[in-house]
Amino acid sequence: MALKYVIQTYGCQMNTSDSERIVTVLEKMGYKPCEEFKDADLIILNTCSVKQKSEDRIYGFGKQFRELKEKNPKLAVGITGCVIRKASGLRHECEEEIFRTMETVDFCFRIKDLMMLPDMLRKLHPVKGAENVKDLLSYFHIDPTIGNIAQVFIPIGSGCNNFCAYCIVPYARGREESRSMAEILDEVKKAAKRGAKEINLVGQNVNTYKPSDEDPKSKESPFAQLLRKIDAVKGVDRLRFYTVHPKDMTDDIINLYGTLRTMTPHLHLPVQSGSNSVLKRMNRLYTVERFKELVAKMRKRLPHMSISTDIIVGFCGETEEEFMESYNLIQDLKIDLVYVSKYSEREGTLAARTLKDDVPAKVKKDRFERLTDGMMHVSHEYNQQFLGKTVQVLVERIRKGYADGKIPEFKMCRFPIKGMSAAKANKLIGQYVDVKVEKALEWALEGKAVDLPK
Ligand code: SAH
Ligand code: SF4
Ligand code: F3S
Fold first, then answer.
1. Residue partners of 59: CB distance under 8 A and separation at least 6
2. What is the mean pLDDT of residues 262-281?
3. Closest ligand (CA of 110)
4. Any idea which ligand is nearest the CA of 14?
5. Global pTM value
């Protein structure tokens, strides 16, 4: 009987995309997927390290893995993702910290060492398929096994050079590397052939994309060049990207909104704080005024554009006044979606070395709740504009008698599919459905399908 695997993925879209490459390697080696840990012979956790809570969640699996191993002696456990910093290898061959914190882990690998995975697995399991994986050149070259055709994430590079004071990512992912345009385009075309309509490009700072094959004669930045090339790919009609750093957002990208067919009326532009003094302590290298100017320029091109952002509350030394500047920024600019995080000190970062994590947990929680409440009002108001209108939903999932997916403005919209067979409902995933909006809630829209695809 084939050996079975489960991959559990945490963190950002970069990890989602990496997991799809891991799946390709495992399936080439003959492993078959299963749903639950209890049925698995191989468990891989693709981890996030952005907050202490994200790491603690991983360590919390220790006991469960011990019990599972007692029941299934074949079970092997591997850890990858941002918790793994220094090296890849089997326990006893590798110095990585995870082996000290979790005694039930058998191997770990940095995602850029994904090519080492087959050899490690051969030492743990009687797996074959050596021929199929002998020419894995680098992890970017591995063809991903797309998990959900409605949500295709394609990395344009990895790593980050910015060293924002709070952030572990440059330590976890290393310095910024860019993939070639040719390689990315090839992956986009393959995804489009499989039926992908929306492409999400992912990188820590997409604007500093610097591939080896940029056009040196072009007046546009390499990222703008890449967007133009993807815009020309048949079948792709929604293009999104994460994340833009406000200090590096250039006019050539802004000018593509309303120009390129595929640019969606939504931008995720993480501001992190609405206070210049906090931004300075965070080492973000832009001002609130610069952020406002960017939002104004975008809205001049597309007045109803949805702008989402990230905000950290309770960063070192954040006063009530500084917090209120973040609160007011969201209200004033009508930012309709905010991912709020409570500051979590990360060992080794600039903030951990030079600043005090001095905002009490209670205050962080209170600010988190106030900012979230404030944002819900803005989001609710923004969503009202869709009432009675027909929107185009790209279906991503079927749940509890509803099909659910995003409209171009990045809002989720669901519609009932009662009476439809499961097979037919699943066929809707990755398809567009026009929906007449009847309810505009704080987080999402709801309506009725105008006509369902045959
Ligand atoms: N490259 C992106 C962010 C990647 S990390 C950018 O430049 O914006 C994703 C989000 O996690 C960040 O935007 C931030 O809001 C949050 N985050 C990162 N480090 C954090 C920390 N130490 N504590 C709390 N939130 C953090
Ligand atoms: Fe972290 Fe800053 Fe890099 Fe984003 S830009 S990944 S917040 S260091
Ligand atoms: Fe987390 Fe790593 Fe992404 S730390 S947010 S999974 S880059």
1. 101, 102
2. 98
3. 3
4. 3
5. 0.95
